[in-house]
Amino acid sequence: MLSFISDMDGVVYRGNQLIPGAKHFIGELLKRKVSFLFLTNNAEQTPIDLKRKLEILGVDGLTEDHFLTAAQATAQFLKSQKEKGTAYVIGAAGLISELYNVGYSITEINPDYVVVGKTTAFNYDMLKKAVCLINQGSRFIGSNPDLVDPAADGTLIPAVGPILAAIEAATGKKPYIVGKPNPIMMSIAKTRIGAHSENTIMIGDRMDTDILGGLGAGMKTCLVLSGVTTIDMLGDFPYIPNYVFSSVKDINLDKLLKEHEEGQLFT
Fold this sequence. Notes:
- The chain has two domains: 3-41 and 180-261, 3-Layer(aba) Sandwich (Rossmann fold), CATH 3.40.50.1000; 73-177, 3-Layer(aba) Sandwich (Rossmann fold).
- Helices cover 35% and strands 20% of the residues.
- The chain contains nine helices and 15 strands.
- The chain has helices at 22-31, 47-56, 70-81, 93-101, 124-135, 161-171, 183-193, 207-216, 253-261; strands spanning 3-6, 13-14, 17-18, 35-40, 67-69, 86-90, 105-106, 113-116, 139-142, 148-150, 156-158, 176-177, 200-204, 220-224, 243-245.
- α5 packs across α6 (161-171).
- The two termini are 15 Å apart.
């Protein structure tokens, strides 16, 4: 059975605007009962937040199980490293909530980890605390490496990468990134839907996270140009996706499913 793992921001929507064709594509996946998962480096929102956002944008039929966020992956990774640990968090409510869900407590006093995700509230005091705690021995974790995110008006806005870079510059220590393209997150995603790499297509708008992560996991990859990456940027990377489309509107699901059934897709 062919499976899909897809990014969201830049693939399904930009900011608070649904990308043309996304509603139809998701509807077709649901109608045909194709196994799929939205795998997002978004650590600001929970699966229920994302489900409700798509409902507001007109996409129905999804459940919380259709979403895996970088916040969830980060929380699962930290739990696997240290049960009931402690963390100082620079990030939004979604990241904090997932850490609480796995038994972590949030503290500024000798935490096991400094965990950083995207937040619009980042300020100098947060930077100072993070730097001091890391210099005192707390381990440095990043939810994802994204430098920018696509906004609804077509512009690019700062993501978590600049925050991580500021802390790294002040401490001289690199963060361990849990989100895409880390194989850990890709493995969690495949396990969640019972998918196998040789039967899975990764859809994304970023060459350095979505496409690289999919290639590293042995999947076929599909780049859409509705988000961060433009066609002129493809030459900047030493690898290429298997497919390139303007948006999900141009993905021919019938053709992909037929090629997969005939054993042509992954040859």
